[in-house]
Amino acid sequence: MTRHVERGAGVAEVLLEGADAEELTRFGEGLFGSGLRRLYLLAPLTDGRTQRVAIAAGYTREGIARGAGTDDGGAPRDLVVWARVAGDVDGPSPRALPDLPGGELTDGVVVLRPLTVADSDSTYTMRIRPDVSGRSVVGTPMDPAIVARQCAESESRWLEGRRAECTIRRSGDDAYLGEIALFYFEPVLREAMIGYSLTPEARGHGYASRAAALITDWGFEIGMARMTAGTAVDNVASQRVLERAGYLREGIQPGKLPGPDGTRIDNVAFAKLRPAAT
Prior knowledge:
The chain is an alpha+beta fold. The protein has two domains: 2-85, Aminopeptidase (3-Layer(aba) Sandwich); 101-273, Gcn5-related N-acetyltransferase (GNAT) (Aminopeptidase, 3-Layer(aba) Sandwich). It is built from eight helices and 13 strands. The strands form two sheets. An eight-stranded mixed sheet has the order 6-7-8-9-10-11-13-12, sandwiched between helices. Strands 1-2-3-5-4 form a five-stranded mixed sheet, with helices on one face. The radius of gyration is 21 Å and the shape is globular. The relative contact order is 0.10.
């Protein structure tokens, strides 16, 4: 049930306790009818369920309230802010990155599914390998608890519309092969970037190219006009992956990537344009 927690100066905060979108919508309509101007709710970044209720009820994500909540141990934690104001259009709020159709993408050989906290151990084990972490733009924390939190917050980043993170699994036995993500940094240009990593055992079988093709095609299906990717100059294997997935090499971007000890590394830029309608 939804209950009103705090109200003042035309603003109210809501707690969700098992509420659904229909109940939250009715609750908000009643308050707006009494003169309320703004209704907002706060949710932990790991609470995808509450954020989905907010989206379905027409709330818009506004940002992160740093240290606004506490975890089970009493330590401060960030909360995500969702709000609805009087006059907002009824119905679900739009999403830049929708859910995968049927919850996954597959070509019959590999399967892509959203990253979850259940993937933490496999993800951590792969990410801390020097041949993976050394190629990562953002680096990999050496604390498994941090990686577990990152996996648990993946749904929140997807709902934000900035990053769709997936595991790559083998069709049939569901073996973990690695991860792949679509980063939506350029909504005005309708341009997204992909990045991926594979376990050593999964390399050399064409899995990465298949995964790259799947997430790229999905990007085009949801409206992207251009998909990009990049690799270090010496990462020839990754360049072959992109070529097999239909990407074209555009050139060298000097010093684009962070390297070890504060150095910079040249990036080989690749891109694929949305196929023309026939």
